[in-house]
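Collaborator request, handled under Task 6.
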Amino acid sequence: MTVTILIVDDHIAIRRGVRAILEGRGGFEVAAEAGNGAKAIDLAARHKPDVAVIDYSLPAMNGSQLTRRLREASPRTEVLVYTMHESDALVRDVLGAGARGYLLKSDADQHLIAAVEALAHQQPYFTGRVNETLLAHYLAHRGESSQLDALTCREREVVQLIAEGNSSKQVSAALAISLKTVETHRASAMHKLGLETTAALVRYAVRNKLVEP
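Structure tokens returned to the collaborator:
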């Protein structure tokens, strides 16, 4: 059976490298590529790939946010998040979003094929020094909600864009929503997170890997 794959990364050179590795293995077919989250969601809904390989650090919509949206658009698609960074907080975030795989970019040459094969068979796959205790604890408490889980996808998008240094007006233009709607989402997110200032919101976003420091 051919495994169909969606690759999502905003760097075309990296997408080409990932494609080359995957297409060098028989039985894999790269059905589509995307350079941003919005296009990725559209392609996932259209192609229903078996596996989506997505970069965590995407503009406007990070890997965990995109994972949630992809799972909504194509529930049967398994998500492999790959990143340059390694942290317990990031692992918790992608697991909570519904990803089944976590791959460090430095491990891609050795592990990408095995990771996609595992996800294609509905098996999880993690590389790097992922804390096994953390993973076991999280899997045992999947039903427990977190502050981040309380945010809607739109609230997460607004928080990420603000934390990246965008003004409310720029966020409004980027997401094609009104300035008042941006302020409403920001206020709601800050209330849910128990934060009182924009500076605190930025620190929270960096600490929880919604944006890169």
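The cover message to the collaborator said: "The first strand starts at residue 3 and ends at 8. The chain has eleven helices and six strands. Please let us know whether this matches your experimental observations."
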